[in-house]
Amino acid sequence: MPARRSAFTLIELLVVISIIAILSLLVLVVANTVRKQAKVTATGKRMDQIVMALQVYTASGGTVASVLQRQVLRSAPTLVSLREALAELKKTTRWSPGIWTLGTAKVMPNFRYNNDSGDQRDEVRARFYPGDTSPSQIGESLEHTLEANPDIAQAPTRPSDTWYRTVWPKAWPASDWSADPAGSVPMVWETPWGRPGWIDTVAGAYTWRNGELATTAAVRDLSQLSPLHTRDLLIAAEVLEPATAGEDYRTDRKPGRPWNDAWGNPLIVLAASFHPPRHDTTNTTAVMVDKPYLRPRDYLITRSREHFGYAASVYVAVAAMGEKPPPDTLTAAAATGPALTWAAPDDAKVLRQAWLDLRVHARAGEWNQDSFADPPWKGLRKVEGEGRMSLLSAPTEIR
Question: How many domains does one find in the chain?
């Protein structure tokens, strides 16, 4: 009768231990993957909530997009009827007394396109004063033509006659958010994303926009959006409290905060605007007298509504840096440890560098002028590589 075995052999024990170790390692890998995916999902929800909150941003004075442009992004002026703009300037309790003159006639403040008194449209502006019923030669009216409303923050100094053409120019200046150091000019486009730009028409000494569109879409992509209004947009989305927004966003890296991703790094909100520029005609002579080239100052707003169905929109997207901030972003923040915190003077510097790093890693430029019709991704894009991860939402148009 064979003897009974009372214990495992050493080899059997080693085999069992090896199997347990392998199973434990597999469980650990799966658990880490599940935890990472849970954080990606939680971060994606926060990013979606920010965009949804901005889509229903409530404030008086127009569409969601126009209010966001004026009050949050500060990328467009407040436009009112000419009558309202003139009525504002009549408030001598707010503005210092005084009127502008054209030649020897004393008139209400006029709104000039060019600074030479021979501009025919300057003569038309001079007619807009109480009691004058003469028609505008270029189709403008006190009731229906739009103009920038004087900024009461300037009071009691009256705006100059060129102020109007500066805050609402005939061509929006190029954004300088990506310059080093970062500038303050917002990203504003003259036509919507995915649509062609306006045609510049040249005839003799005159250059103007006839309200027609080019045949191909203007070149644009997601990497062009500016990150510099992140904090303002998070306040508008009610993610940050206005009183403590700056300090909270710069220093509070708790993963549960709605302005951070699930790893505790700050979310970056990106934005650009569409707003038609002022219509203007430039010339190489001192006097503009050819009426066919002259249009109302708000002509491109009218044409935008006819071409696109709207005349203002805001494009937003949200980016997250995932498990760890990019090294260059930490350097920009002068961070002394792995946590991305910085001081108030470095706001623009840190946001600029964070988005410069993220847009490359997440390949933001792949979402271009054709992508609303044929998107390279939908919802949230997750990119891993180079020992890091980045998350980027597809852009949303808010009207």
Answer: 2
134/217 same-domain check = no
The model carries a pTM of: 0.86
- Residue 29 placed within a domain: no
Per the listing, tokens 């410069």 go with 356
Q: Within this chain, do residues 312 and 371 fall inside the same structural domain, yes or no? A: yes
In a domain, residue 22? The reply is no
Task: Write out the residue range of the structural domain in which residue 144 sits.
Answer: 78-167
Quote the tokens at residue 93: 């309790």
Q: What confidence tens digit (pLDDT) does each residue in 92-107 have? A: 778 776 554 444 444 4
Measured distance CA(151)–CA(141) in Å, rounded: 22
DSSP notation for 108-159: SPP--SSSSTT-HHHHHHTT-STT--PPPTTS--TTT-EEEPP-GGGTTSPP
> How many whole angstroms separate alpha carbon 212 and alpha carbon 196?
9
- 108 and 147 fall within a common domain: yes
Rg of the chain over CA atoms, in angstroms?
29
How many CB atoms neighbour CB 389 within 10 A?
21
Tens digit of pLDDT for each residue in 293-322? 677 889 999 999 999 999 999 999 999 999
313: left (phi over 0), alpha (psi -120 to 50) or beta: beta
**Are 65 and 82 found together in one domain?**
no
Dump strand ranges (E) for 18-140.
Answer: 79-81, 101-102, 105-106
Same domain for 227 and 258, yes or no, is yes
Query: Could you tell me if 127 and 252 lie in one domain?
Result: no
